[in-house]
Amino acid sequence: MSSVSLRLQPFGTTIFAEMTALALQHNAVNLAQGFPDFDGPEPAKEAAKRAIDAGHSQYARMFGVPRLNAAVAGAFSRRFEPSFGVEPDAHVTITSGCTEALPSTFLGLINPGDEVILFEPFYDSYRACVALAGAVPRFVTLRPDGSGRFGFVESELRSAFGTRTRAILLNTPHNPTGKVFTRAELELIAALCRQHNTLAITDEVYEHLTYEPSLPHISLATLPGMWERTVTLSSLGKSFSLTGWKIGWAIAPANLTAGVRAAHQFLTFATATPLQHGAAAVIENPGPIVEDYKRLFRRNRDILAGVLGELGFRTFPSDGTYFIMADHTAVSRRLGAADDRAFCQKMIERCGVAAIPPSVFYENREHGRDFVRFAYCKKAETIDESVRRLRALAK
Fold first, then answer.
1. What is the pLDDT of residue 127?
2. Comparing C-alpha atoms, which of 215, 206, 164 is closest to residue 185?
3. Which end of the chain, N or C, is surrounded by fewer C-beta atoms within 10 Å?
4. Per-residue pLDDT reduced to its tens digit, 134-151
5. Non-local CB neighbours of 329 within 8 Å, separated by 6+ positions
6. How far from 30 is each of 24, 98, 198, 352, CA to CA, in Å?
7. 178-204 pLDDT tens trace
8. What is the pLDDT of residue 2?
C-alpha cells in the first residue's frame, strides 16, 4: 500500500533529482539540473555574514525583512511607465524561493474545481501545485515554428478559457524552451484575462537573463488592466547564481497578497533572516554581476549550440533563461534510443554528459519525446569539457 497521497502519487521523484543522481553515479558533466557550478556575488555573501554577526538569527517578519521588501518593490516599480508605486509592506511577500511562492499562491487563491491554464512544456512543480490546490489543469502546447522559436496557436489558447477558468500560469522567460514571450503574445494573454476575469500567475525567475535586444523581458503585470489581477513571482537564485539561498517573492495587489500570505504563513512562515539581508544588498546594488553572467551564458549557449548542430541535433533558439532545447532524433537513431529518457540514459553512459528528458514536462508525453534540454549555466571550462565529451556521439 502506497503511503503517498493520491494527489501526489502521479508525480513520483522529480526528474531533476533523478538525472542528477545518474550524473553522480557515472561521474558525468551535469547539464541537467539548472544550477551554476560557481559561487554567487561577494556583496550578497558579505552582507549575509554581517547580518549573522549583527545577531539577525531569529524569525524574520512573516512577509519579509523590511529592507528586502523595499528593494524588491523598488526594482519592480521601475518596470512600469510611468513608475508605479509598489508598496513594500502591502504588495511584496518574501518566500522560500519561487518554489514556495508557487504553492503559496495556488493554495491561497485557487479553490478545488477551479480551472488553471498551463503552457506545456511546464516546469514540473506547476502540475503538482495544481494538484495540491485540487484544481483542474487545462493545457496549451508550445511548439517550434518555422524559425525554431516555440509559440502557441491563438485558437488553442482562446478555447482553453471558460466559465470555470480561475487563473493562467505564465513562465517567461520560459523553462525549458528558452522562449521569451513577445509583447504581442502577452497582450493577447492580457486581453483574455480581462475578458474572462481571470487571474494571471507569472513565474519570472529568469527575468534578467535575456540575450536578444529585440526580445526583452516584459512583466505581464505592467500591461494595462493587469496589475490588479496578476501575482508576479520571482527569486534571487537564477539571476544572481544563489539557487541554494532559496530567497523568492510574490508581488501582487493587497487583495491577492492576502491570499498568498494566508498560505505562506502556514508553509514556511518566514525564510532565512540573514540571507534576506544579503539578498537586499545585491538587489539594491547589483553592479555588473548580472551582465557578467549573461556574457558567460551567451558564450556557453553559442558554443554548445554549435557543437550540437555539428553532431546532428536540431537546436532551437534560446533567447532567455540558461537552457537550450534540441531535437535528438537524428542522433538517437544512431544510438538506438527510442525516446528522450532512453536517449539521456545512453548519453550519460556513452559520453558522460547529463541532460534532461523533457517529456516529463508535458501532459501528453509524446509531445516531448523527441527533445532534450541542456543547461548552460556553468563555468566556461565545464561547457568546454562537456563539448569534448559530446563529440563521442559522432563515433
1. 96
2. 215
3. N
4. 999 999 999 999 999 999
5. 370
6. 8, 22, 39, 9
7. 999 999 999 999 999 999 999 999 999
8. 66
Positions of E strands within 148-276: 150-151, 165-171, 199-203, 230-235, 248-251
CA distance 104 to 264: 5
Q: What is the mean pLDDT of residues 317-334?
A: 96
| 37-56 mean pLDDT | 97
**Rounded distance between C-alpha atoms, residue 378 and residue 31, angstroms:** 8
pLDDT of residue 18: 86
pTM: 0.96
In the chain, the domains with their CATH numbers are: 9-40+289-394 (3.90.1150.10), 42-284 (3.40.640.10)
On the question of a cis peptide bond just before residue 213, with omega within 30 degrees of 0, the verdict is no
Q: Nearest-CA neighbor of 49 among 209, 210, 278, 242?
A: 278
Provide the pLDDT for residue 172. Answer: 98
Instruction: Return the DSSP state at 391.
Output: G
Task: Name every residue whose Cβ is closer than 8 Å to that of residue 392 and which is 6 or more positions away in sequence.
Answer: 350, 351
Q: Is the dihedral of CA 105, 106, 112, 118 positive or negative?
A: positive
Dist CA 382 CA 395 (whole Å): 22
Mean of the per-residue pLDDT values of the chain: 95
The answer for residues whose C-beta is within 8 angstroms of residue 158's C-beta and 6 or more apart is: 192
Is residue 328 packed enough to be buried (19+ CB in 10 Å), middle (13-18) or exposed (0-12)? buried
- Report how far residue 386's alpha carbon sits from residue 371's, in angstroms, rounded to the nearest whole number: 18
Separation of alpha carbons 177 and 214, rounded Å: 18
Give whole-number Cα distances, 137 to 185, 193, 278, 355, in Å.
21, 16, 37, 27
- And the C-alpha cell for 377? 549555466
Which residues lie closer than 8 Å to 291 by C-beta, 6 or more apart? none
Backbone angles phi, psi at 39, to 5 degrees: -85, 160
